[in-house]
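ARCHIVE CARD
CATEGORY: sequence design from structure
SOURCE FIELD: tokenized fold
FIELD CONTENT:
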């Protein structure tokens, strides 16, 4: 991320220094999320988010009805 873009991010939205940033695409693939759920997370967080946010907000639907 360029310095000018970094300065525009409010402190509340910046990840803590110890937090891992994950690609939403990689997270969805690793946790076998449906494409619809991947798209929902992309709308919420854009291409990257902290692992904590992704784990707290991902919804995995059961394949067994």
């Amino acid at each position: 991320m360029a310095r000018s873009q970094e300065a525009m991010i409010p402190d509340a939205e910046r990840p803590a220094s110890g937090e891992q940033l994950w690609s939403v695409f990689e997270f969805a693939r690793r946790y076998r999320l449906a494409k619809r759920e991947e798209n929902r997370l992309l709308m919420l967080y854009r291409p990257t988010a902290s692992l904590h946010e992704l784990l707290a907000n991902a919804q995995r639907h059961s394949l067994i009805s």
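CARD ANNOTATION: DSSP finds four helices and two strands in the chain. The CA atoms of residues 41 and 54 lie 8 Å apart.
SHELF: design records, drawer C
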